[in-house]
Amino acid sequence: MARIGVFVCWCGENIARTVDVVKVAEAMKSIQGVIVSLDYKYMCSDPGQKIIKEAIVNERLTGVVVALCSPLMHEKTFRTAAKEAGLNPFLLEVANIREHCSWVHEDKNEGTKKAIEITRSVVERVKQNHELQNITVPITNRALVIGGGIAGIQAALDIANGGHQVVMVERTPSIGGHMAGLSETFPTLDCSQCILTPRMVEVARHPNIKLYTYSEVESVHGFVGNFKVKIRKKARSVDINVCTGCGICQEKCPQKKIPSEFECGTGFRKAIYIPFPQAVPNKPVIDREHCTYFTKGKCKLCEKVCGPKAIRYDQVDEYVEEDVGAIVVATGYEVITSEKFPEYGAGRFKDVINGLQFERLASASGPTEGRIVRPSDGKEPETIVFIACAGSRDPAKGIPYCSKICCMYTAKHAMLYRHKIHHGKAYVFYMDIRSAGKGYDEFVRRAIEQDGALYVRGRVSRIYEKTVNGQKKLIVKGADTILNKAMEIEADMVVLATAVTPSPGAAQLAQKVGTPYNEYEFFSEAHPKLRPVESNTAGVFLAGSAQSPKDIPESVSDASAAASKVQILFSKKELERDPYVSVVNTDKCFGCFSCEAVCPYRAITREEIKNRKGEVVRMVAQINKGLCQGCGGCISICRAKACDLIGYTDEQIWAQIHSYPADPIDPTEENGHE
Amino acid sequence: MNNTTNNKKENFEPRIIAFVCQWCTYTGADLAGTSRIQYAPNVRIIKLPCTGRIDVHFILKAFEQGADGVIVSGCHPGDCHYTSGNYYARRRFEMFKKMMGFLGIDDKRLQFAWVSAAEGRKWGTLVDEVTNNVRALGPFEDYKSLKIFQAE
Ligand SMILES: Cc1cc2nc3c(=O)[nH]c(=O)nc-3n(C[C@H](O)[C@H](O)[C@H](O)COP(=O)(O)OP(=O)(O)OC[C@H]3O[C@@H](n4cnc5c(N)ncnc54)[C@H](O)[C@@H]3O)c2cc1C
Question: Is there a contact between A271 and A291 (Cβ–Cβ < 8 Å)?
Answer without folding.
Answer: yes
